[in-house]
């Protein structure tokens, strides 16, 4: 078994100065290198907005449920929650004010995979992804085709998933992005910001919404997603990732969440991994697949996540517009991983958190981090 010391040594060995543009990471944010499941029972891991999801999924597993059904039921709680503006119903829209959702699922024992991208009008895209996996010979359906398929499968199609609160945020963004476009800023209309919003979105609740914001390290746009992976007592694995994606994106933009190997990967012989954060960086480095392959080669889940993140840092060296003044990435990415033995871990470029449920309880813990800040 790898000790914490061994882990730090091997993690350090992988951190060539070149790989980080000359900036060595300060530490691993104090999170333990290997999280084990003392009860050797099922384990469910998720992004930090998934505490309820992991709790629910674990209970489903303990009642003898299948790993995929467990994680889907778990993320449905978040998808259906209008106060979570990063996922499903209530998610933040694209730059035209339309909510487009991405999701993928993988079922380890049957080697199944399904996904939908840029899907409009369905509150639970993860369930449509399951239907793609179960009832078609395809893996990924997008846009209008995905919506027609969902209708055929009996899903309710809503005209819009935009809640008043999400529309309010979109309008505020629209009014403020430029003083040279045709959208007037509140002041130019003769109204203050709050009066402007009250007039345009009278039905928005004036409460602080639960944003589920995991990563907005670039300080520009909110991101958010839920990833949830599970292993049961037999070592069978499944995972799901679901999101409304990057807020204000160009219509039709697809992130990492519905891309098998990017936002999610499950190999029933090895483990499962998923991601949240800047999807473009994850897609280009085949993120979740990389994490699972590293676990196959013997890395602990945390170590595998950290190595996949270092690749992202390395790739960002060639993209000045994505780097901060100190040369580090101007965004965050999180990976979450669990292996067949029930060991789990999570890491991010910058300090972050994750949710986990084992038979000893459910909690939010600190992820390891490549950079402290
Ligand atoms: N990864 C998602 C995307 O790029 C967003 C997120 O995780 O916040 O679409």
Summary keywords:
single chain, 373 residues, alpha+beta, Glutamine Phosphoribosylpyrophosphate, subunit 1, domain 1, 2 domains, eight-stranded mixed sheet, five-stranded mixed sheet, 10 helices, 20% strand, globular, binds aspartic acid
Structure, explained:
By secondary structure, this protein is α+β, with helices and mostly antiparallel strands. It has two domains: 39-161 and 220-359, Glutamine Phosphoribosylpyrophosphate, subunit 1, domain 1; 164-218, no CATH class. It is built from ten helices and 13 strands. The protein has helices at residues 4-13, 51-62, 67-79, 125-135, 143-152, 164-176, 193-200, 279-284, 287-296, 301-316, and strands at 43-47, 101-107, 112-119, 140-142, 226-231, 237-243, 264-267, 271-277, 333-339, 344-348, 353-358, 361-366, 368-369. The longest helix is centred in the C-terminal third of the chain and has 16 residues, at 301-316. It is globular and about 65 Å long. The site of aspartic acid (ASP) has 15 residues, from strand 8.
Mean pLDDT: 86
How far the N terminus sits from the C terminus, by CA atoms, comes to 30 Å
At the fourth level of CATH, the homologous superfamily of the largest domain is (Glycosyl)asparaginase
| CATH A-level architecture of the largest domain | 4-Layer Sandwich
Largest sheet entry: 8 strands, mixed
Secondary-structure element string:
HEHHEEHEHHHEEEEHHHEEEEE
Low-confidence stretches: 1-29, 207-219
Tally of separate domains: 2
Q: Identify every distinct bound molecule in the structure, by name, code or SMILES.
A: aspartic acid
Q: Quaternary state, please?
A: single chain
């Amino acid at each position: 078994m790898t000790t914490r010391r061994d882990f730090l040594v091997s993690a350090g060995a992988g951190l060539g100065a070149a790989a980080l543009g000359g900036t060595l990471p300060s530490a691993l944010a104090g999170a333990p290198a290997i999280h084990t499941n003392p009860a050797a029972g099922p384990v469910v891991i998720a992004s930090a907005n998934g505490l309820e999801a992991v709790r629910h999924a674990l209970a489903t597993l303990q009642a003898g449920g299948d790993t995929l059904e467990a994680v889907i039921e778990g993320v449905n709680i978040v998808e259906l929650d209008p106060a979570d503006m990063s996922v499903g119903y209530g998610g933040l829209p694209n730059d035209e004010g339309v909510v487009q959702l991405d999701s993928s699922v993988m079922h380890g024992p049957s080697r199944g995979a399904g996904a939908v991208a840029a899907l409009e009008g369905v509150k639970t895209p993860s369930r449509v992804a399951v239907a793609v996996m179960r009832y078609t010979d395809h893996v990924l359906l997008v846009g209008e085709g995905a919506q027609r398929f969902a209708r055929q499968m009996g899903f309710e199609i809503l005209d819009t998933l935009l809640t008043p609160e999400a529309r309010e945020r979109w309008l505020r963004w629209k009014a403020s992005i430029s003083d040279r476009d045709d959208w007037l800023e509140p002041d130019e209309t003769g109204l203050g910001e709050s009066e402007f919003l009250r007039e345009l979105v009278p039905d928005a609740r004036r409460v602080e919404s639960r944003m589920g914001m995991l990563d907005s390290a670039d300080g520009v746009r909110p991101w958010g997603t839920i990833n949830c992976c599970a292993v049961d007592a037999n070592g069978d694995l499944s995972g799901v990732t679901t999101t409304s994606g990057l807020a204000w994106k160009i219509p039709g933009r697809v992130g990492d969440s519905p891309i098998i190997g990017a936002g999610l990967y499950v190999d029933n012989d090895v483990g499962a991994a998923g991601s949240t954060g800047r999807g473009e960086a994850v897609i280009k480095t085949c993120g979740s697949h990389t994490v699972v392959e590293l676990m196959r080669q013997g890395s602990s889940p945390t170590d595998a996540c950290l190595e996949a993140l270092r690749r992202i840092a390395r790739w960002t060296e060639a993209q000045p517009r994505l780097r901060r003044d100190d040369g580090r990435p101007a965004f965050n990415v999180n990976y979450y991983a669990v292996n067949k033995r029930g060991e789990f871990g999570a890491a991010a470029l910058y300090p972050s958190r994750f949710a986990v449920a084992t038979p000893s309880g459910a909690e939010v813990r600190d992820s390891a981090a490549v950079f402290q800040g």
